[in-house]
Design goal:
The protein is an alpha/beta fold. Helices cover about 50% and strands about 15% of the residues.
């Protein structure tokens, strides 16, 4: 039992945060959240979501949806360029995880 308690105390806490890929990130994003995320990835298990399904809830026009894949790619490049390290953190695309949609179906908000 003592080993289990010691193991539990060594487990990192988790953070889930991310962005909707609505366009390129800018200096405000860096100062507001990205610089902090880079620091936090050493202390926490970080999960950074590219919330592309959330993007569809605000503007479902062809002009916006047709460029969504490019904006997702740009968001990943922005994350990498500021120092988010995929060896330390998980970067994932919301629509690529089917369980997200399943949970939304059974747990509507």
């Amino acid at each position: 039992m003592l080993q289990f308690i010691i193991f539990m105390n060594q487990t990192k806490k988790r953070i889930l945060t991310g962005d909707r890929p609505t366009g390129p990130l800018h200096l405000g994003h860096f100062v507001g959240t990205l610089a902090n995320r880079v620091k936090l990835q050493d202390q926490y298990d970080c999960f950074f979501i590219m919330a592309d399904l959330h993007t569809l809830t605000t503007d479902f026009s062809y002009a916006k949806t047709s460029t969504l894949n490019d904006r997702v790619r740009g968001l990943v490049l922005d994350y990498l360029s500021v120092g988010i390290d995929p060896a330390k953190s998980v970067i994932y695309q919301q629509s690529r995880v089917p369980e997200v949609t399943y949970l939304e179906t059974i747990l509507p908000i």
